[in-house]
Amino acid sequence: MASKPRKPAADAAPRSTKAKKAVVSKKPKALKKDTQPAIAAPVLSDVRAKIDHIDRSIQALIAERAQFAHQVGKAKGKLAAAVDYYRPEREAQVLRMVVDRNEGPLSDEVLVHVYREIMSACLAQQEPLKVGYLGPEGTFTQQAMLKHFGRSALGLPLSSIEEVFQEVEAGNADFGVVPVENSGQGTIQITLDMFLTSNLKICGEVELRVQQYLMSRTGRLEDIERIYAHPQAFMQTSSWLRANLPKVEKLPVSSNAEGARRARNADDAAAIGGESAIHAYGLKKVVTKPIQNDADNTTRFLVIGRQIFPSSGHDRTSVLVYIHDKPGALFDVLSPFARHGISMNRIESRPSHQAKWEYGFFIDLAGHVEDPAMQAALAELQTHSAQIKVLGSYPVAVP
Q: Mind telling me which NCBIfam families this protein's record contains (predicted)?
């Protein structure tokens, strides 16, 4: 029986075609990718036009905010002075909301600075606040004052921490700003000692990153024969000075700004201080980088005034406690705070100046004096201590 002629495989051609299609199908994809239109670069004039539009909107909103701030002043009625319109707890709340809302690209620090200046300008519509600080111009205390009150406040440079207290007590300044401790060198003792006799209250705190520079009139290291600086500045820069200028004479002065003022009068003199002092006194950096021992060198400042303000929701309370001289006296002072769940941030002892070997304890606590737990702890403490003095309840420093 003859066999039937063999038919070509039915799928031979299709397989070949599929293979071709598979090969061909890759080319259009590559071609499509290569021929995608490039994204056009933004036109500079268009971008600037949008920025101008945004600036107009921002300016209009700032003006509107200033009008509402003025209405707040009217709602409070006719008050005696600018200090009566100032509410640090409200400002702290506003700045915390700024931080909470921030999603970049600007940092929290930049936005807080912007809003602080807006609030400062709005408050100055009534009358600028008068704020005393440890001067002269160019000190870190002035920087702390500007950081907390803004540039619309009227700064009053004073010659000593004692004078800052005196001017606020006398009513010549609405508030004062004084240093209280440094992260590397500890407590500024004179500030604590002033609270032993003063009736002023702590109304706020400021944390300032401190960068110390070596500055002189010529800007040349080889010219320097003596250096002026505050004793704290010498301690904060001791390692660099020991390594680079071991034989130079070190002359302590009342402030770094005073040192800069003296250094500008001679080519062989130098000073230690911040960049603001460099600009204020027309000096040059001897070395471009800061010379402090600790890169994170930070100083804490206190804002002092004549009253305690309401709670901001995130506060610190400072108290001064005189204790009886007996065994376990310090334990008796601290245990009421532990029992009522109050955290202690800092404790520092100083001679009371009331009796020999008697000490007062400065204690920083988390919370406000109006908080029920704080009131209960202070009431319990009265049975163990000779005297309790609430130095102030104030908003914790905003980052």
A: CM_P2, PRK11898.1
